[in-house]
Amino acid sequence: MRFINAIFTTATPGEVWSNKDIFPHYERAINALPLADEEHDKLMKAVRYFLMGERTRRGIPNWLDLQHFKERAMAFETSAEAILDTLAEQITQATEGSGIVFDAILTTTSTGNLMPGLSYRLAHRLKQVVRPDSMMIDLGNVGCTGGIKALNLANQLDSAFENILVVSLELPSTVINWNGTSVDVWQGQCTFGDGAAALWVSKRPELGEMALKLEQIKYVQQAATGLNLIRWGYSDYYTFRLANEKTFNRDIQAFVAEALWNTESIWRQTTHWAIHPAGITLLLRLSRKLGLPREALSYSVAHYEKFSNMSSASILHILKDIAVDVPVGTAINLVTMGAGLNVIYGCVKKEKLTDT
Length: 356
Description:
Oligomer: single chain
Structural class: alpha+beta
Helix content: 25-40%
Strand order of the largest sheet: 5-4-6-7-1-8-13-12-11
Number of domains: 2
Largest sheet: 9 strands, mixed
Number of helices: 12
Number of strands: 13
């Protein structure tokens, strides 16, 4: 049995942008595209729809000025380094004087590619709490499910791995594409905000500030039929691409609903949900299909409105928010979906939270 003993979160370096702030920049870029009137109007209408509501997000510094591969890659590295500095400081403070040494560091990102990877860069910062023979694994190209996939991997490791760090770091503002003419490119640009989080996972509930027992994690992949629903395209860098929107919304909803119906006997008794918000409309449609009460979505909706979608890190932020508020003994459902197509359902139970 393993427990989440701490969830470390950090704001990404950069500014907070509201939908209202972003729209004039997007409007100017779309007006400059070589589109026929009908295509221009269709894209502009879609962007207005994607930017509905009082929603904010974070982006790396100067992300609106990014143009070419080199500056995007360098911006990812610079901001990732700053985020790792902050996470390392939090982890060091949480473990100082405890004798804790981490046996593995598992990291994930889909919005950049670094060598040495994030795990080695974090280990370099942690020094005394990471051994020379600690296992380092960087998971790439796993999309929005990466954070829970890394947690699932930690849960499956041999019992000799007593303390494990799981880190998710996503900077989708680096993939801004001003030359994209398709709706899906702009859907990604309207939806995703930057974010990062880290989990301390161990076999001992008495460690750390909390103890969230990992009750189960169930993984469903639909590569046979869902491979092309979410994918990367390529321009000066990576760019967000989808199957056509109608197919995407229909199939994603069907895949997630099917996966959850198969575990209904578990989650139906639990009222608290951390749901990866791949879009507020999809989230609400899915909840209606499953018969979930509106209050079950409150933390996911609040997170989405404040940060937009933070990809593989978002569900870890939402889980922390819920864990702080609910009483000991409460079960919390986890649901995330992403490229592949993957759906992951999990459940944790709050066993402890230390007042801070």
